[in-house]
Amino acid sequence: MSRPSSRTFAQRIADGIVLGAEGYVFELERRGYVQAGPYVPEVILDAPEALRQLHREFLRAGADVMVALTYYAHRQKLADIGRADDLEQMNRQAVRIANEIAAEGSALVAGNICNTWSFDPADPVGSGEIVRAQYREQLRWAVEEGIDFVISETNDFFGEALIGLQVCQEFRLPAMITFASVRSHSTFDGYDYVDACRRLADAGAAVVGLNCSRGPATMLPLLERIREAVDIPVAAQPVPYRTTQATPAFEALTGPDGQRLFPLQLESAALTRFDMADFARTAAELGVNYIGVCCGGAPHYVRALAEALGRETPASRYSPALELHPVLGEQPSAVAQREMGGWRAEP
Ligand SMILES: [Zn+2]
After folding, report:
1. Are 216 and 247 in the same domain?
2. What confidence tens digit (pLDDT) does each residue in 274-296 have?
3. Å from CA of 82 to ligand 1 middle
């Protein structure tokens, strides 16, 4: 088994905060390479250059981890879109591409498994075996291509998350396991999110925490409780959207006419890069060890997270210098001053 990084995941996270970057599926959908609805990452085979480019942009923005885009690249999902024959090639190529770009900046490579929609809490054993078989085949290919650790994410069920952990353990891979906390307090199979994280920590997870669904405002209070409950590293990868106590998860956000914003009209609820920088600082103060972004994530957010943590990234070469702006800057042009009045609102 080959590990892409010269230092293990355990060493990297012991040294300090590991910066993640996700949201590949949403961003590649916006760029025209993934279909909204099924959200299967067909881009891996259909437009590998587009995937390489996004990996590279996240790397330049400061990401410490290249996450193989195998989210929703499991047997059930590929069967749904009639591409079951592409399953192995898609998984292998996603990990290969993640390795290729990680090597450009000595990033870690993460294999990725996720909620399968095959798990049924009414039949946890029978359906669990279907989930287990899907994770086993995905991770076998990932291990053969080379990964440092596994991110099992967007888990809705504790039962399914535990299967993910067990399969990682079969392969002796460190597992970072995170829940998509769509509900206020507990997983779909009735475990309080804090308790679910504690149980996974006790069962041997390397990292536990939350990803997706919640924006920083509603993820941070829950994270604080998870941080207090476990003594292993904690992960937080929120969505960059304005979730509220009344609507803690972005799936339920609505617009002014009551229309559902998820997943195609979330822009009006988007946070700014400064909001995400604030999130990174607060999460670091709470003692969160793996900080990133999920659906809605894009390179400018990742750079903001990195710089908020005091890092300089390759993309920082082009970080804002508004003091040099012709109208808003320290020495605005005479024409701008005379004609535009510094862009103040007209009385
Ligand atoms: Zn997400």
Report:
1. yes
2. 999 999 999 999 999 999 999 99
3. 24
